[in-house]
From TrEMBL:
Species: Quisquiliibacterium transsilvanicum
InterPro entries, sorted: DUF2784
Domain of life: Bacteria
A matching Pfam family: DUF2784
Keyword set includes Transmembrane helix: yes
Lineage: Bacteria, Pseudomonadati, Pseudomonadota, Betaproteobacteria, Burkholderiales
Transmembrane segments: 20-40, 47-65, 105-125
Protein name listed in UniProt: DUF2784 domain-containing protein
Keywords: Membrane, Transmembrane, Transmembrane helix
Keyword field contains Transmembrane helix: yes
């Protein structure tokens, strides 16, 4: 057991944690954007998805930085990494989450897109619920 713990210590452990944070961040972004589709099948997920979608829209409209981003950057620095010199998956997730040349206008458009997609999904869900009553 000690050997497996030692393998997570130091720079290797920080790099692994940074990769895990990046994967969690990407999964959260996908859930924010497309989670409403899950809600159509499982309406109880709305209690989880609505706050996540609101957070995602607020981050984009506010021009804020998600707390996962600085956490990942600190872990990468602790691992001695400068940017993404990682594996293929890490590289592409990086481009998805932090596209080069992201402008304030693009952020607002992304937030509006998330808002519109989810408004359509929840409108359909509300319509379905009203028809049942």
């Amino acid at each position: 057991m000690k050997a497996s713990f030692d393998s997570l210590a130091g720079a290797d452990g920080a790099a692994l944690l940074a990769d895990l944070v990046l994967g969690l961040h990407a999964a959260f972004v996908v859930f924010v954007v497309a989670g409403g589709l899950l809600v159509l099948r499982r309406p109880r997920l709305a209690w989880l998805h609505l706050p996540a979608a609101a957070w995602g829209v607020a981050i984009e409209f506010g021009g804020w930085i998600c707390p996962l981003t600085p956490l990942e950057n600190r872990l990468r620095a602790a691992a001695g990494e400068a940017g993404y010199a990682g594996d293929f998956l890490g590289h592409w997730l990086q481009l998805l989450l932090y596209p080069p040349g992201l402008t304030r206008g693009m952020q607002i458009a992304l937030g509006a897109g998330v808002l519109l997609v989810n408004a359509a999904v929840y409108g359909r869900l509300l319509n379905r619920w009203l028809r049942r009553r």
